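User: Can you help me understand a structure? I only have the sequence.
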Amino acid sequence: MGKNILIISTSLRKNSNSDALAEAFLSGANEAGHFVEKINIIGKSIDFCTGCLKCLNSHRCVIHDYADTVVQKMRKADVIVFATPIYYYEMSGQMKTLLDRANPLYGSDYSFRDVYILTTAAEYDSYVSKNAENGLKGWIECFPKATLKGSLFVGGVDLAGSITNNPKLSRAYEMGKQV
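Assistant: Let's start by predicting it. Here is the structure, written out as tokens:
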């Protein structure tokens, strides 16, 4: 039986390079027979967490926007995949805001066990993605049943579409297939 996979693409740029990685992962996961849903946050309203902590008791956020929808899907997914461009050696602000808004999952009955991160950047050096990966690991540590199962970085891709024909797209596909 296939796993329930949620892919969250956090770039706000249409045809982004990180979204291309997400699509490749999706194709591999689909081929392997998994149930895959991809969410793209372009044009969606996700406000900042206010730190009120009311969600710790209710497991719901008091702010009602698109993050509500995403967090409910995260709760039910077996696997969560985040795709993000690297901005200033860190995950996109949109991804960080979404992770903050996922606080209602803390202490709740969540289903996800495996988490992946797909990153792209203009720079080539592999260390470029480490802060984003470490930030996600910190978030994952709050969920004892979950683990970071995979990370893929593609450097040297700055302009939209510059990832086309990059061999690491095949690695993203294989990563999706191996879930």
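Now, to help you interpret it: Residues 46 and 67 are 5 Å apart (CA to CA). The longest helix spans residues 17-31. Let me know which part you'd like to focus on.
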